[in-house]
Amino acid sequence: MTIHPIATLALCTSLILPMPALAVARVGEPAPAFSATDTTGKTHALADYKGKYVVLEWVNPSCPFVVKHYSSGNMQSTQQQATGAGAVWLAVNSTAQSHHEYLEPAALGNWMNKQKASPSATLMDAAGSIGKAYGARTTPHMYIIDPQGTLIYAGAIDSKPSARIDDLAQASNYVKLGLSEAMAGKPLTTASTRAYGCSVKYE
After folding, report:
1. Residue 132 contacts by C-beta under 8 Å, 6 or more apart in sequence?
2. 169 burial class (0-12, 13-18, 19+ CB within 10 angstroms)?
3. What is the pLDDT of residues 89-143, one digit of tens each?
4. What are phi and psi of 139, to 5 degrees?
5. Domain count, the chain
6. Domain annotation covers residue 194
7. What does the alpha-carbon distance between residue 148 and residue 31 come to, in Å, rounded to a whole number?
């Protein structure tokens, strides 16, 4: 599926939008604690995964940039590499319940299943508390937390800020690279990047 750039601009408010002045997560500092239910009603807290690498992925099925990464299989392969190496992958949906793009938990869970996605869980954050704590501005917006609970990466999934599937072949996947380096005991070559995608649909 190839999405025309003009259509992309018409469908979604893309790239980084200004956020309210909030105390948000910063790379090199402790990741904000949170607790939320997933699409099946199970509660997950960041504290549950102390001692593991945790990847956070902001997701919205209505966003063409998200569709690009899922329809191509790029997000799924990134999830599989991470969880296969022992990391926990938490997809987060911060779309407000009042927004027309909001999906009920079962519907969002069904969409993820149809994509053959493999996150450890998909969390509902309709109030936006997790998203705002992390400063998540786009879908996707990616974060990596180390086993000590420190945020070690924040930003884009890759180096090509477009909704074109063809661009994936030339893109550097920051999440795959960052996790690989961190798990090998190396500092991240790229620890912070400019996220791209559709704006998170907060209340």
Report:
1. 19, 20, 22, 24, 94, 202
2. exposed
3. 999 999 999 999 999 999 999 999 999 999 999 999 999 999 999 999 999 999 9
4. -120, 120
5. 1
6. yes
7. 10
Cα distances (Å, whole numbers) of residue 42 to 6, 46, 75, 104: 39, 13, 23, 15
Residue 24: pLDDT band with limits 50, 70, 90:
confident
First to last CA, the chain: 30
Residue 71 lies in domain: 54-199
82 found inside a domain: yes
Give yes or no for a contact between 130 and 94, defined as CB atoms under 8 angstroms apart: yes
**Does the residue 146 lie in any domain?**
yes
Q: Centre a 10 Å sphere on the Cβ of residue 22 and count the other Cβ atoms it contains.
A: 10
Burial (CB count <10 Å: 0-12, 13-18, 19+), residue 63: buried
Beta bridge partners of 36: 44
The mean pLDDT value of the chain amounts to 91
